[in-house]
Amino acid sequence: MASEAKDKKKAASNGGKSKTKVYQNFIAGKWCDAANGQIVENRNPAMWSDLIGTFPHSPKEDVDRAVKSAQKAFKTWRLVPPPQKAKLFFRLVEILTERKEQHAFDMTREMGKPIFETRGDVQEAIDTAWYASGEGYRMFGKTVPSELNNKFNMTIRMPIGVCGLISPWNFPMAIPSWKIIPALMSGNTVVFKPAEMTPLSAHNLIEAILDAGFPPEIVNIVHGSGKEVGTHIVNHPDIPVISFTGSSAVGKVIGRDASYMLKRVSMELGGKNAQIVMNDADLEHAVDCAIWGGFGTTGQRCTATSRVICEEGIHDAFVDKYIKAAKKLKIGYGNNEGITMGPCVSEGQRKSVMDYVEIGKKEDGATLAYGGKALMKGDHADGWFHEPTIFVDVKPNMRIAQEEIFGPVVSVLKAKNFDDALKISNGIDYGLSSAVFTKNVDQAFRSFRDIEAGITYINAATIGAEAHMPFGGMKATGNGHREGGWEVYEFYSETKACYIDYSGKLQRAQIDD
Ligand code: UN1
Known about the structure:
Distance between the termini: 67 Å
Oligomer: single chain
CATH class of the largest domain: Alpha Beta
CATH topology of the largest domain: Aldehyde Dehydrogenase, Chain A, domain 1
Bound molecules: 2-aminohexanedioic acid
Number of helices: 15
CATH architecture of the largest domain: 3-Layer(aba) Sandwich
Strand content: 15-25%
Largest sheet: 7 strands, mixed
Number of strands: 23
């Protein structure tokens, strides 16, 4: 692998042996160490003693170098006809498909979700590249009739420049692909900072992009902290476009700073998604979906089902079956056979889950119905495991019903009827995903109309958005932009209004006939 530095001198502590893989940044068309030579370790959250490799811990000078190169590369990349770009994305589809199993294995090893989930994560990147290869043959503008004779109006789409892309650890290849692929397809160049906890999947994606034959200078990856590398990207005067996925707290700062500099900024932030279960719902199906939505990815999705709102008549039966189903989850290292739920991504993340369980236990009236403990013994002793946890008798204003937990904790609430369920579902700051289980078509359509969320599913879990559909949320979940599908191409391109007057004389709009 070209990217693994031959010099093993900097290998981090692994008992004095020098087998540790040393990964690098990719800046200005070359793999390179951080300018200050600093490195950080990447470890397996299911087996903390498993050291995966080391990655650069870059200073902001590395961002400066990446931006300079990306600016230069933009001058030529913007002129490459989109159908030619499309062919490169088609090659990327082939390469990622060939490497899917290895990339999934690597991803499970570095962030913990089971291999069947990480295969899906890689597939989401493949789907995103498929979509881009088609989009390259469209990139439509519009023709619009002019109000004057002998005049022609149209709009075209223009690339913008260098895009600063900052991604989270829970979808380590899918979310970077949602950003990098449409940014490049639209003719921009990229400076990419992946999450510190999942640098290997980001590295794998960049390597696949380079192997597909894209001009190397159009994409840069700078590993490092949010505080130094991320902040510098957001505030860099030569990066006009910022896309960030992460917490609402960080998003507010990024939004403030980037907007002040008049940048185009897209933010995908938190969620507190509810699954509503009406009395007429198919109970088994609703339980299956609440297990997948609540405990898939160990609850570490922005789209995770964090609340289940049951109509009174189905509540007790639902809770009974939900607990029985949660007991069947097999918790462990996700590259092992039969595992259905992995660890939390880090010690800090598990600590935050444990804190929320304590908060839930103290909330007046809430009952811990299942789980509630960190798993620290036997096969679980070397990782950041936590039991799937279910609270019942939860009231809408409790902290566990309001705040994003980002872990395997689900609150079950009771609703008197459909209107009450909608009110509870909407009674939060966030608005990303939502689900309603009902056989009543009127309620299904009212859900689309009345739920304050960017995504509403009928009879399907709150997780599992498809890459060619718009993805994003309302309220505190973001600032109105969408990733995925056709909408993201609006974000990564400017619209230019073009007029051609072929009358040969002065024609004044709004004045002459
Ligand atoms: C996220 O949780 O940040 O819809 C993204 C889903 C996935 C993407 C989740 N396709 O659950």
